[in-house]
Amino acid sequence: xxxxxxxxxxxxxxxxxxxxxxxxxxxxxxxxxxxxxxxxxxxxxxxxxxxxxxxxxxxxxxxxxxxxxxxxxxxxxxxxxxxxxxxxxxxxxxxxxxxxxxxxxxxxxxxxxxxxxxxxxxxxxxxxxxxxxxxxxxxxxxxxxxxxxxxxxxxxxxxxxxxxxxxxxxxxxxxxxxxxxxxxxxxxxxxxxxxxxxxxxxxxxxxxxxxxxxxxxxxxxxxxxxxxxxxxxxxxxxxxxxxxxxxxxxxxxxxxxxxxxxxxxxxxxxxxxxxxxxxxxxxxxxxxxxxx
Length: 292
Prior knowledge:
Strands 1-2-5 form a 3-stranded antiparallel β-sheet. It has a two-stranded antiparallel sheet with strand order 3-4. A hairpin with a 2-residue loop joins strand 1 (148-149) and strand 2 (152-155). The chain is globular, with a radius of gyration of 23 Å. Helix content is 50%, strand content 9%. The relative contact order is 0.10. It has helices spanning 6-17, 23-41, 51-63, 68-89, 113-120, 125-133, 137-141, 213-226, 236-247, 252-259, 264-270, 276-291, and strands at residues 148-149, 152-155, 158-165, 168-174, 183-186.
């Protein structure tokens, strides 16, 4: 019988990946380990774990109200841990046989026409950039003067706060989320004045250090409250850009590249949900044509 516990093997796997993955990924692994793997499996030997135990654990997480995405993140870490154990120690990978809960499609929210107008006419530069170009909050924070040239914006970096270990957090600047996230986007004329900063300075805040995402989120919440808007997540601005682009006739391939997605299917599945107004317009057009 192997002496290692599941949590022991997990920490070993995470350590083995530190040089191969981004710092933020390691921090995410460690958070999942601290909050889930270690408390649940510190007393379970590696070869005592069964697929039934893992399946039951996933169900308990779902019953406790954890999101499908969060449970799948835990499942991916457990499965990767056991894949590593199978390669290094020849153990059986029972985790891959366990049943993760089905990923349910989550409805995404977009701004109403009135809310969209308020952002376009408002004084929140970060929100206006995100709505106009579909950037993620960390990408907005990471924009620098050097990223703007000849009417084109190059997304080169992202900013995020990570938790390397319990009780400690720090802000890091890194490459964008994926290889496809590093991209170029034509700059709409109405936000060109906002994308200016002295050399070697960040566009949002104008300093030599970036404004962190939670500060952007804080000011966005204040903006929503001041303008009588719903309590809207900042990422809704990206959803709205994508949906508006599709409804304006932008082809999916072009939109996918502007959003930084690896495939057009990701764009369609995650970000492009027609509004009820667009559905009604389509129905009116359909039946108007049939009456001609």
